[in-house]
Specification:
It is a single chain. The chain has about 300 residues and is of the alpha/beta class. It contains twelve helices and nine strands. The strands form two sheets. Strands 3-2-1-4-5-6 form a six-stranded parallel sheet, sandwiched between helices. Helix 4 links the parallel strand 4 and strand 5. The longest helix is centred in the middle third of the chain and has 30 residues. The relative contact order is 0.11.
Length: about 300
């Protein structure tokens, strides 16, 4: 089997657009659809064919890749594409959908005789654009050669978590990882807010932890977005982070675990979104610390 694939990509937001470009640069034939076509049009310059409907995008595809907002959105779009899906086609489902939604998506795959891969990714805009995502994937080993060239084009490594995508083992790992990401992001915002409130230069905090066990490149990166007014374009938007935080809280509740930090993260992110920061990087949770958010940092 050739290492090149025909890929039908559904969803060209921050992550999907980057994935489409990297797939095309790797020699794959890519047809992409997005709910708002204008947002997908720039991909044509990278050799991606833009389609008007999900069905057009998946027609004749070896692999269908979904990178949409959430589980219900992915299911809705796949239903719109159903008439053009070919039995035996591999479906790489990379939307962060949550545990409950994965079951619905897997049932759709079974009904339409698709080979289902639960395959969310770790990473934001920059690693996505560089093809350096970490793919968390679950799916049948015998069918993995069909999707490996696609996964290799969008990520630097693939971590296989199981044989059955319907069990959601990759999605479960993604929620665990995102709980840490969101906690760290919110903590970074609170450190900056408390520094400002107490009249402490944030750099003195970074100097104090430099090189020690408390130091963390991710903390510094997220803080820098706030301090340097670089929240747009978002690496990972507040609105999407709100959705993920709520999925994490719901997963914990469903399994008898109280996640106070995740719940607080969801509330802070929602307040930031309500204050007009929904399209900015999730580091904008910083603004949730203030009744009257500062205009300069």
């Amino acid at each position: 089997m050739s290492d090149t694939r025909t890929v039908g990509l559904l969803g060209t937001g921050i992550m999907g657009a980057a994935m489409a470009r990297n797939l095309a640069r790797s020699g794959h034939s890519v047809r992409a659809w997005n709910r708002t076509r204008d947002k997908a049009e720039p991909l044509a310059a990278d050799g991606v064919q833009i389609t008007d409907t999900p069905a057009e995008a998946v027609t004749g595809a070896d692999v269908v890749l979904t990178m949409l907002y959430d589980g219900p959105a992915a299911l809705d779009v796949m239903r719109r594409a159903a008439e053009a899906l070919t039995p035996g086609t591999a479906w790489v489902q990379s939307t962060t959908a949550g545990i409950e939604a994965i079951g619905d998506l897997a049932r759709f795959a079974e009904e339409n005789r698709l080979v289902f891969f639960d395959a969310p990714v770790l990473g934001t805009r920059q690693p996505a654009e560089a093809g350096q995502l970490t793919v968390l994937a679950a799916g049948p080993e015998q069918h993995r050669p069909a999707v490996t060239p696609v996964l290799d084009a969008v990520g630097s490594r693939t971590v296989w978590t199981g044989e059955d995508g319907a069990l959601g083992s990759a999605t479960r790992l993604k929620l665990v990882a995102n709980s840490w990401v969101l906690a760290t992001t919110n903590a970074a915002g609170e450190v900056l807010a408390l520094s400002q409130a107490l009249g402490v230069d944030p750099q003195s905090f970074f100097d104090a932890i430099e090189g020690g066990g408390l130091d963390m490149p991710y903390l510094r990166a997220k803080a820098a977005l706030v301090l340097n007014d670089q929240l747009s374009p978002a690496q990972f938007a507040v609105d999407t982070a709100v959705k993920d935080a709520r999925l994490i809280v719901e997963a914990g509740r469903a399994h008898g675990v109280r996640l106070d930090v995740a719940a607080a993260s969801a509330d802070r992110l929602a307040r930031a979104a309500a204050a007009g920061h929904g399209d900015e990087d999730m580091a904008a949770a910083y603004f949730a610390s203030f009744e009257d958010p500062p205009q300069t940092h």
